[in-house]
Design brief:
- There is one protein chain.
- By secondary structure, this protein is an alpha/beta fold.
- It is built from ten helices and eight strands.
- It is globular and about 55 Å long.
- The mean pLDDT is about 95.
């Protein structure tokens, strides 16, 4: 099988699968390059309300394909950062479903998601110090925002792998599931996410990511939308709300 990113959409959830099993789902230059346009298509799809990123088989992603670094490390790093930033900017909730190894560029991608669920036994690592690579400033800031400066420095200085217990304790992951339960929990959580107000989620995502200058923007959209009225009415009528506001397609 050629290394590639594949996807499927079911129940308003897009699942993007990293496929390069011969190299533990390492990302080739072509795979890094293909992620931003794929995310653009899914962002524009009104049927997609949430996105799951995962790896084929028993591992998430072992990082960048090292052979691509030999040819042009700066170009390869630029492709990885562009893909990471496109994932972080995806306007709908994103979730990384992680098992096996989540290392290097794989950890970059997982960190760029809004939420991270991991199977017990998963190993995480940020490994540029093993290759003499300067980790990008944007990726470093994102890692620090998740785990704090001390743990970020430990990961970056040492390149050592950490287990799910430490990843959960430091905030690198949100939940750890027993072996065999990850997919079921991902399905349950994404089912909850797609049932909630997309207006609330889109605004909260921007605010949480530091766009605190957008209060007026979102207040205007809330006034024009019917989500608040529907949410209150549904609560009083003791029924599930039917939210209608949709994330605008990218311009």
């Amino acid at each position: 099988m050629e290394p590639q990113l594949s996807y499927r959409v079911a129940g308003h959830v897009a699942t993007v699968v990293i496929r390069n099993p011969a190299k533990r789902n390492a990302m080739t230059a072509a795979m890094w390059r293909s992620l931003p346009p794929l995310l653009d298509r899914l962002a524009a799809d009104a049927d997609v309300r949430a996105l799951v990123l995962t790896g084929e088989g028993t591992t998430f992603c072992a990082g960048a394909d090292i052979s691509s670094l030999r040819e042009g490390p700066q170009e390869a790093q630029g492709l990885a950062v562009a893909a990471e930033e496109a994932l972080a900017a995806f306007p709908k909730p994103t979730l990384a479903a992680v098992r096996g190894h989540c290392v290097g560029g794989g950890a970059q991608l997982a960190a760029a998601c809004d939420l991270r669920l991991a199977e017990e036994g998963t190993l995480f690592g940020v490994t540029p110090a093993k290759l003499g690579i300067v980790y990008p400033a944007s990726s470093t800031r994102r890692l620090v925002s998740l785990v704090g400066p001390a743990t970020a420095k430990y990961l970056l200085f040492s390149g050592e792998l950490i287990d799910t217990e430490r990843a959960l304790r430091t905030g690198l992951v949100d939940e750890v599931l027993p072996a065999g339960d990850l997919d079921k929990r991902v399905d349950a959580l994404t089912g909850v996410l797609v049932s909630r107000s997309r207006l609330t989620q889109a605004a909260a995502k921007e605010f949480a990511d530091g766009r605190t200058d957008r209060d007026a923007h979102w207040a205007e959209r809330a006034s024009a939308a019917s989500d608040t009225a529907e949410g209150v009415t549904a609560f009083l009528e003791r029924r599930a709300p039917r939210f209608t506001w949709s994330v605008p397609a990218p311009e």
